[in-house]
Amino acid sequence: MSAANISNLTQESFDPAVMKSAVPVLVDFWAEWCGPCKMLAPILDELAQEYDGKVLIAKVDIDQHQALAAQYNVTAIPTLLLFKQGQVVNQLRGLRSKRDLKASLDQALAG
């Protein structure tokens, strides 16, 4: 469902992929049954290509990984968490425009 350069994270792969990443990581908490999540997917695919090498984009299926969703207080989806050096630096809830997402990514890269 996701582009080749978007990682699907699990409980086991989350820490190595996100906490130890040298670049900012945008994590999309989503579910198969979520309409807005499906609308967001092509935007994330485009961003993954545009920011390849600068930002890692990853997804967490909340139905399969409920503990991760709970750990980050994800109560609505889609929720996007932007991590930098292992810390959440931004949280975006609901369907966002590509422009909104680019602004958040650019801010993380600049800071």
Describe this protein's structure.
The protein has one domain (6-105): Glutaredoxin, CATH 3.40.30. It has 4 helices and 5 strands. The protein has a 5-stranded mixed β-sheet, with helices on both faces. The longest helix has 16 residues, at 35-50. It has helices at residues 11-19, 35-50, 66-71, 98-110, and strands at residues 6-8, 25-30, 56-61, 79-84, 87-93. The mean pLDDT is 94. Helix content is 40%, strand content 25%. The chain starts with 5 loop residues before the first strand and ends with a helix. With 111 residues, the protein is α/β, with parallel strands linked by helices. Helix 2 (35-50) links the parallel strand 2 and strand 3 (56-61).
- Approximate helicity band: 25-40%
What about the largest sheet? 5 strands, mixed
What strand order characterises the main sheet?
1-3-2-4-5
Instruction: Give me the Rg, rounded.
Output: 12 Å
* Unreliable runs: none
Please provide the ordered H/E string of secondary-structure elements: EHEHEHEEH
Task: Specify the CATH architecture.
Answer: 3-Layer(aba) Sandwich
Task: Output the CATH homologous superfamily.
Answer: Glutaredoxin
Q: What would you call the shape?
A: globular
Structural class: alpha/beta
How far the N terminus sits from the C terminus, by CA atoms, comes to: 32 Å
Number of domains: 1
Overall pLDDT metric: 94
Number of strands: 5
Number of helices, counting only DSSP H or I runs of 4 residues or more: 4
CATH topology: Glutaredoxin
Q: Into which percentage range does the β-strand content fall?
A: 25-35%
CATH class: Alpha Beta
